[in-house]
Design a protein that fits this description.
By secondary structure, the chain is an alpha/beta fold. Helices cover 35% and strands 19% of the residues. Helix 3 (65-68) links the parallel strand 2 (51-59) and strand 3 (74-76). The longest helix has 13 residues, at 2-14.
């Protein structure tokens, strides 16, 4: 009896809905870098529908994910922090001197959601000094906590 039913069970199993395993990209110690590199990376992660877990430092260009990855696919752990500052020209072209790029700073601000722009404005705007959001109410106003991490 079981032998007769086996082909039918096998056929039925091939039509059952399945969901692919959810890919997770975990950020633990990302201090930023070139804006164009991060934009390309996050567009690729968005298009692959990856879930992003911020589980540590995400500073500077790393924060561009806030405007590229849908927020329902990003969460934060208790170790998460986001750091913001003005953008700089590539130091390879400025003899290693930090020179602010108003254009790149405006471009980065253009990516940020309203809640981030509001937080930055409350902190006096972007400056050369890093301004960080640590775990807590300010961070949770921007991103949801990862349920499996709390």
């Amino acid at each position: 009896m079981l032998r007769a039913a086996f082909p039918l069970l096998l056929l039925a199993a091939t039509f059952l809905p399945t969901t692919p395993a959810e890919a997770i990209y975990r950020i633990t110690r990302d201090f930023g870098g070139r804006v164009d590199v991060y934009k390309t990376k996050y567009v690729a992660l968005r298009d692959k529908r990856e879930r992003i877990v911020i589980d540590g430092v995400c500073n500077s260009a790393c924060t561009l994910l806030l405007g590229i990855i849908p927020r329902n696919r990003v969460c934060v752990t208790p170790r998460a922090s986001l750091g913001f500052h003005e953008a700089y020209f590539d130091p390879r072209y400025t003899a290693g001197v930090k020179i602010t790029s108003k254009e790149a700073t405006a471009e980065m601000m253009g990516y940020y959601p309203r809640e981030v722009k509001s937080w930055i404005a409350k902190k006096g705007g972007l400056t050369p000094q890093m301004k960080s959001i640590k775990n807590g109410a300010d961070l949770w106003a921007i991103l949801d906590p990862c349920p499996e991490e709390f």
